[in-house]
Amino acid sequence: MVVGERKPFDEIKKTLEGHKKVLVLGCGGCVTVCLTGGHDAVQVLSSQLRMARDNEGSPLEIIEKTVERQCDPEYVEEVAALIPEVDAVLSMACGAGVQFMAERYTTTPLYPALNTTFVGGSVKEGYYVERCQTCGECKLAYTGGICPIARCSKSLLNGPCGGSTKGKCEIDPEVPCGWQLIVDRLEALGQMDRYEEINMACDWRTNRDGGPRKMIREDFQR
Amino acid sequence: MADFEPVIVAFCCHYCAYGAADLAGSMRLEYPPNIRVIRLPCTGKVTPRFLLRAFEKGADGVYVAGCLEGDCHFMHGNLVAKPRVNYTKKLIQEVGLEPERLEMFNMSAAMGPRFAEVAREFTERIRELGPSPLSKKTKAPQEEAA
Amino acid sequence: MSGECKTDSRLEKILKSGQFAVTGECGPPRGADPEVIRKKCALLKSKADAFNITDNQTSVVRMSSISSAVVMMQEGLEPVMQMVCRDRNRIAIQSDILGGAALGIKNMLCLSGDHQKFGDHPQAKNVFDLDSIQLIRTVRTMRDEGKFMGGDDIKGAPKLFIGAAENPFADPFAIRVPRLAKKVAAGVEFIQTQCIFNLDKFKEWMKGVVDRGLHEKVYILGGVTPFKSLGMARYMASKVPGMDVPDHLIQRMKDTPKEKQAEEGIKIAVEIIQELKQVPGVAGVHIMAIEWEEKVGEIAEMAGLLPRPAV
């Protein structure tokens, strides 16, 4: 899933300065799963904003709403009737959702409530970790199912570097060395011969370096 | 400030604190009338939005009273509530409320006197903090209007 | 491995002639004053065959490796230009290789680079377009095949003697020899190792290297660093990732009175060099006297490595 983290409250509050009525719009997708942008998160943030603004003597009226996903035009359309009622929208979606909203509602100020942080998963409730950097050319088949780009701090394709100590990365003793994980897994799979194959330099055109990307399913085009 | 009577919401677990409140009553123990008890099946039901909503609706103080640690009727509901209460303390602080206005207590159904003691102590704490900065601003015009 | 030299590198000539090589190190200044390098050069001159010029080591901004190397050449010393993958993409890397060679640099050391977290600009975006092994392959292809990574021909290939670093003490130990094999397969010609304090572990690694015959394909220079003090020994033991300092060395520094610790540190370094000379497959030493350049000559002298041969 795409993991997002709520921006500091003061930063959110500052972006809404001067507005009197806003739509706080949650997203039912990834950010609901990671507990930062769904129905509950909308209620918590709205409650906080109302109290903070009351406290400052400039009350803020809020419409609370959560749509299925903000990264789909159909769902973004659902709030069309609410937009004329508010003078700004605070989106609790990831960066993609915020932009789908901005593209659809061109004359309404749109603010993000989250920092979109990474593509990952939850190791337990409320604990999320990064696993993919969306490089656009998956190498997991050659590295024992562990990504050197996402999990090595230097994204080395032929690691580990000399900073790997007792299974941990040099940047932080809490961070596992990605290449230690790869080697352990290759050993477990009996594929250590793969380790000595030199992984050639990446073709980063499939990554963001090739410009904004798109994916088109031809059978869905009319 | 001396005549300030705080509004306090106590989220009480059915299996412990709520029973303790009942026992306190049967024992004719006095505790301040400021406490509004809301019964929950378990404090594990508490979420930040419950707690925030109480403050938003005008509470000067809020506390959650669950079973003694290790004695939750649903295994670990009270241990779920504890970090949520701590997290919500930060949320109310961001809004401008003192984190001391929110607390979590643990007690068993047999602890009637403890229930009364917590109610007295917490009411005293909130009395000292004074009215919620929110209730000062939001309630006053309402009263005028009324 | 012997045979024709592929470059005009003095270091390559010494290694190919079978003589025990000595390299040193020179950290560029944090400013634009070339005199700092000239002063260091005066201390280092003729104390070793070539000298590494670090490339923003520990991710702290310093004068560039290429320009510092040029200053060093003006003083008559042979530099080894270090290059890290942290700060440049493949376009800048290849461009700097051409530039370095054009200015007369004859040796290059290919490194991944420390993570910027450790430096003075932890906010920086790192590059790591290539890693050290891919960098080795890149320079080798540029030199021997006269081709850029993209496949185009180079007009005037850069003649650089190609080195890399290897840390025999980092984990997982099991892949430390295989990783060297990858570097050899990528085309590396000499290796400077991480500072050696744990000789037993180093010998174990070297045995693996010799068993695979890698020492016949690459020259291995053992890294040696003198302790300036007990504090430095302790710091290297506990704070530097991938460093292995055995307790008995710490104890030996501890048992030495403070005013004699520097002397003792040098003695230890000399003993390690003497031992390294006996280890099969070791072709030389790389003396890293960190901000202590004046001691390189003393260490080389005590270890019987001076005078350096003329080639």
Task: Explain how this protein is built.
The complex is a heterotrimer of chains A (222), B (146) and C (311). By secondary structure, chain A is an alpha/beta fold. Chain A has two domains: 2-118, 3-Layer(aba) Sandwich (Rossmann fold), CATH 3.40.50; 135-210, no CATH class. Chain A has seven helices and nine strands; from the N terminus they run βαβααβαβαβββαββα. A four-stranded parallel beta sheet of chain A has the order 3-2-4-5, with helices on both faces. A three-stranded antiparallel beta sheet of chain A has the order 1-6-7. Chain A is elongated and about 65 Å long. The model of chain A has no long low-confidence stretch (mean pLDDT 96). Chain B is α/β, with parallel strands linked by helices and 146 residues long. Chain B has a single domain (8-145), classed as Rossmann fold, CATH 3.40.50. Chain B is built from five helices and four strands. Chain B has helices at 17-26, 48-56, 77-95, 112-129, 133-145; strands at 8-13, 35-40, 61-66, 102-106. Chain B has a four-stranded parallel beta sheet with strand order 2-1-3-4, sandwiched between helices. In chain B, β1 (8-13), α1 and β2 form a beta-alpha-beta unit. In chain C, α7 (199-211) links the parallel β6 (190-195) and β7. Chain C has a single domain, classed as TIM Barrel, CATH 3.20.20.220. In chain C, 52% of the residues are buried. The two termini of chain C are 18 Å apart. Chain C is α/β, with parallel strands linked by helices and 311 residues long. Classes of the chains: A alpha/beta (222), B alpha/beta (146), C alpha/beta (311). Chains in contact: A-B, A-C. The interface between A and C is medium-sized, with 31 and 37 residues.
